[in-house]
């Protein structure tokens, strides 16, 4: 079974890298130190054991030189200087200073070396712990002398040293992880600043900039980022001014053209049938042109208010008025000639939001007109309080919107596939105004499949704080 592990973040990788590096270095130092210390101490202990064994062997030889002295008697009077035990072989017989040791404790290889006349040492293990065995032949005799020096204290010292070194390696690893955590915060902090600035800019705060820095590695990044934001802000301002200026400049000739066409429409009876047809076509296109121009002006106003909050309010700095979405939707349905019984809404007080009425009314009207123009008409409208939001749903009788187009329909100038053949009215700005208005008011707009077929277009807006919250209803 395979487990899908979540990838580690940059800070986690930095901390793990520091901890792993510190652990590796500590392990190498600990092992090296322990091996060197162990070899040095063992070497010193062996040298000390050899000196003690040679001293004891010399003492035993001096006692055996006395006439009539037996090996066993001389060995019984010998007290080893190192606190070990002595085993002696003489004429094929073995003698021991203790009942706990004997010939079995002397390695065969060591016996062979001593029998050949060569002093030698060997390390062995026993029930009481490790020890070093020193063997030598007494000069001028056939006596082989073996002294067994215990290494128990040295073994305990080495264990203590190993524990201390291991604890030091663990502490160094923890210190490395702590330093890695500090270093990761310092390393990631510029990225977090860039991410925060990018988030603020994406939310419409084009005045956000990265703070200046003295770090030579970050000066170029900070400068490039701030220059990019300056260029982006200037481009957006130019585009918004261009749209606003063009829309305003077109308003005057459009008004004159509409007036002229109205004068012609007043003398419709004097025109030929083909002339009346042409007049109807011109009126239709002028009406479409006027709606498109109004939409462009509304989008320019929304863009301007987003870049400069308060710019579109009649009294900047004053709080937005409270508007009941339920009452507003009912009013829009009546004005557009739809039956009011299409609306299912919570009470007006609970569906109150803080917004200017005209932009919100335009957004609601665009949703209703979108259903009428492109989706066979409005099937149902629902306004409800869901937690801290007021949600408006508009269901239509159309074929629905494909999943891949549910976000694209809110883009500016986005139209259905039939629009390329000129069979759909409008310029594709109505839903864009809906999305921009919802975003400007702190809410959101989206499209989903309708509960009874067709499409459901929805907007959610923050409820006014004074409005009482109702239990969330199912959508």
TrEMBL record:
Q: Which GO terms describe its molecular function?
A: phosphorelay sensor kinase activity
Q: Which reaction does it catalyse?
A: ATP + protein L-histidine = ADP + protein N-phospho-L-histidine
User: What are the Histidine kinase domain coordinates in residue numbering?
Assistant: 245-465
Taxonomy of origin reads: Bacteria, Bacillati, Actinomycetota, Actinomycetes, Geodermatophilales
Task: Answer whether the UniProt record assigns the keyword Transferase to this protein.
Answer: yes
Print the keywords alphabetically.
Kinase, Membrane, Phosphoprotein, Transferase, Transmembrane, Transmembrane helix, Two-component regulatory system
EC no.? Answer: 2.7.13.3
Q: Does the keyword Kinase apply?
A: yes
Gene Ontology terms, cellular component aspect? Answer: plasma membrane
Instruction: State the species of origin.
Output: Modestobacter roseus
- The organism's place on the tree of life at top rank: Bacteria
Question: Boundaries of each HAMP domain copy?
Answer: 185-237
- Show the Gene3D superfamilies listed in the entry: 1.10.287.130, 6.10.340.10, Histidine kinase-like ATPase, C-terminal domain (3.30.565.10)
- Protein name stated in the entry: histidine kinase
Which InterPro entries is this protein grouped with? Answer: HAMP_dom, HATPase_C_sf, HATPase_dom, His_kinase_dom, HisK_dim/P_dom, HisK_dim/P_sf, Sig_transdc_His_kin-like_C, TCS_sensor_his_kinase
Q: Which CDD domains is this protein grouped with? A: HATPase, HisKA
